[in-house]
Amino acid sequence: MPKISKRTFVFDEWMALAENNPEAFEFVRQRMIESYISDSKESDRLKRLQWRIDAERRRSKTPMSACVRISTMMLDSVYGDSGLANALNGNRRQREPGQIVSFSSHRQDK
Fold first, then answer.
1. pLDDT confidence of residue 103
2. CA 91 to CA 88: how far, in whole Å?
3. What is the 8-class DSSP label of residue 33?
4. What are 63-67's contacts with CB under 8 Å, separation 24+?
5. DSSP label at 41?
6. What's 75-98 look like in SS3?
7. Is the pTM of this model over 0.90?
8. Number of other residues whose CB lies within 10 A of the CB of residue 67
9. Does residue 81 contact residue 60 with C-beta atoms inside 8 Å?
10. Contact, 82 vs 76, CB < 8 A?
């Protein structure tokens, strides 16, 4: 297994690994992400975010499509209605309370 340091990122090493051994690249990439997440104080939140990123990658037919989906997700988290920019500007959007529906009143006994 190739040795890629967690502390330094050398693009040419990662590119060579991706070109020469895509399976090893994916294995090392996943282990590196897991390592960073587990070292974080926000590991639960980051695990959920990584799950969403991985889901977008799986849904995409091409790497470029995955890149566009993930970039859109990132931009929405900053500039969307509930994004960071609005929160920093004090424009946090209030959510309307949902209507509570009693399932028992809609149930039809047979």
1. 77
2. 7
3. H
4. none
5. T
6. HHHHHCCCCHHHHHCCCCCCCCCC
7. no
8. 13
9. no
10. no
